[in-house]
Amino acid sequence: MLPADDRDVLGADYRKALRDFVADGGERPLHQAYEIGRGALHSGFSMLQLINLHHHSVRTLLQEQPEFRGTIFDKLERTERFLVECLSPFEVLQLGNREAMEALKRLNAILEEEAKRIAHVLHDEAAQLLAAVYLELAELQHDAPASEAVRTRATRITGHLDQVREQLRRLSHELRPPILDKFGLLPALEFLADGYRKRAGLQVTVTGVLAGRLPAAIETAFYRVVQEALNNVSRHAHAHRVEIRIRRISGRVRCSITDDGVGFDHRGLWHRSGDKGLGLVGIQERVSALHGTLDIRSSPNSGTQLLISIPSGKR
Ligand SMILES: Nc1ncnc2c1ncn2[C@@H]1O[C@H](COP(=O)(O)OP(=O)(O)OP(=O)(O)O)[C@@H](O)[C@H]1O
Ligand SMILES: [Mg+2]
Questions:
Q1: Residues forming a β-bridge with 256
Q2: In angstroms, how far is the first alpha carbon of the chain from the final one?
Q3: What's the confidence (pLDDT) of residue 4?
């Protein structure tokens, strides 16, 4: 929001250029309109404020100069052209935003494909290598009957291999859970929650009703969002419990992730510079790309709640 003095200056510039344009037309005041629009955009003026300023200025002009009233429709047409010129920097920005969102959607789709590929390599190829190691170990034990001590070590190695196999399986499933593609969001979130219960010792509950499947992009987005949120809880929150609720109402899917941890001050999160985290910004961008919203409720010592709402679209 602009300080009142700056708003007055902008208002005066606007009225003067508009008055010139309405009186004589010409390119110069239109150029000024564009510059005023650019200045307003950079100073944080909203489009609504600019439209208000426009209406206020038109009213002032009509009061100041009664002769305008005679040819009111011509004059009004000019004021409209003037306003359009002034709003065009906003239009350019909006188009740029739309293109950026489309690029982001494509990037997310590429990342998902890459995650699938890595999950596949981990699951199949690494698992095959492991199977070969199991086999070699078994053959070694068979070919060279060993002492008790060697047999104990071999059993220990097999135990480690079991753990590696289990971790690989879990990692590859979390990277791109087949359960998400096959059974949908709720079972996939349950699976994710289970991993955090086991690995991070968190009490995670998942509740919700979705009644059928959602478009793949939305299911993937919610899965990634909850994954990052749980990641944050386990790394930063010192929480005991996390509650994930998801439901579909009035054409939207709404999801909340609530923890009972230490909370944080999230004001200024979007304006941080330097080597800062990307998780919450990533959530925000993923959600915006699907025309959704993210709301963060948190303050130090009062836990954190993320609220995400995305239009449910058609599958
Ligand atoms: N549930 C939470 N409880 C407490 N603090 C949190 C929570 N979620 C986020 N934060 C705070 O917000 C900061 C920003 O989170 P964000 O996910 O954007 O980055 P990060 O987790 O630090 O790094 P990255 O996600 O890129 O690995 C965190 O560093 C942490 O201080
Ligand atoms: Mg994070």
A1: 245, 307
A2: 41
A3: 65
- Whether the CB-CB separation of 235 and 271 falls below 8 Å is answered with no
Ligand 1 pocket at CB < 6 A: 232-233, 235-237, 259, 261-264, 277-281, 304
- Closest-CA residue, ligand 1 atom 30, reads 236
Q: What percent of the chain has pLDDT over 70?
A: 92
For residue 270, how far is its CA from the centre of ligand 1 (angstroms)? 12
Predicted local confidence at residue 311, as pLDDT: 93
**Mean pLDDT for the chain overall:** 86
CATH (residue range 177-315): 3.30.565.10
How far is the centre of ligand 1, averaged over its atoms, from the C-alpha of 107 (Å)? 23
Domain positions in the chain:
4-99, 177-315
In the 3-class helix/strand/coil scheme, how is 140-155 assigned residue by residue? HHHHCCCCHHHHHHHH
Reported as a pLDDT band with limits 50, 70 and 90, residue 113 is confident
Q: Whose CA is nearest to atom 6 of ligand 1?
A: 236
CA of 235 to the centre of ligand 2 (A): 8
pLDDT at site 100: 84
Rg (C-alpha) for the chain, rounded Å, is 30
Residue by residue, DSSP assigns 257-271 as EEE-S-----TTGGG
* Structure confidence at residue 102 (pLDDT): 83
Nearest CA to ligand 1 atom 23: 277
Judged against a pLDDT cut of 70, whether residue 105 lies above it is answered with yes
User: What residues pack around ion ligand 2 (CB closer than 5 A)?
Assistant: 232, 277, 279
